[in-house]
């Protein structure tokens, strides 16, 4: 509900800015070659751009080097977790197979010894499940932390980016979820991505794995 309210508020604010902008350019006859009340002519004039823009988030994440490095770090974490789980699973399977072999061949010295071994394998299985849950939770927390770090970095950089741009609103657009239609001249994704990469530098995961992140 909060997200929906935010979208509605943003849309209302954008309309308000649009109206103010139109009034500003139409309040004086002949200003910028647009006569008072001729909104359609003004909106069709490619030289006139409203102080709003949008960024395609999907494209930004694919091309922003900092996002690439964060994604690479997450992939390494996931691979490490998977390797640990695979090793634990192999140990569990090997112990279970050995237990089954001994049980079939009457290799245990007593029933008590067989039960002890069975309990040990059950504990191994429990440890495996607990390990899987712990690693899953740790990965989710790490993903959340990195996503917040990325979002905070982009917000800070956009403030710097907008110092000489003068945009009143910069929308985020993911898979056309927020913006159903907009003229391409309001798409500043490429410009923002270039600015962010200029501030951050090359992706360390691709070009220089040993260098430190600059954000």
Key terms:
two-stranded parallel ribbon, 2 strands, 215 residues, single chain, mainly alpha, 2 domains, rod-shaped
Walk me through this protein's architecture:
Keywords: Coiled coil, Membrane, Signal, Transmembrane, Transmembrane helix. This is OmpH family outer membrane protein. This protein has 215 residues and is mainly alpha-helical. It has helices at 2-26, 39-43, 57-63, 65-104, 111-161, 189-200; strands spanning 52-56, 169-173. The chain has a two-stranded parallel ribbon with strand order 1-2. It is rod-shaped and about 90 Å long. Mean pLDDT is 80; it is low at 22-37.
Report Rg: 29 Å
* Unreliable residue stretches: 22-37
Tell me the strand percentage band: under 5%
Question: In this structure, how is the largest beta sheet organized?
Answer: 2 strands, parallel
Order of helices and strands: HHEHHHEH
Number of alpha- plus pi-helical segments = 6
- Helix fraction, binned, reads 55-70%
Gross morphology is rod-shaped
Structural class: mainly alpha
Query: What's the count of strands?
Result: 2
Strand order of the largest sheet: 1-2
Distance between the termini: 33 Å
Average pLDDT metric? 80
Kindly give the count of domains: 2
GO molecular function: unfolded protein binding
Pfam families: OmpH
Keywords: Coiled coil, Membrane, Signal, Transmembrane, Transmembrane helix
Organism: Petrimonas mucosa
In brief:
This is OmpH family outer membrane protein. The protein is mainly α. The chain has helices at residues 2-26, 39-43, 57-63, 65-104, 111-161, 189-200, and strands at 52-56, 169-173.
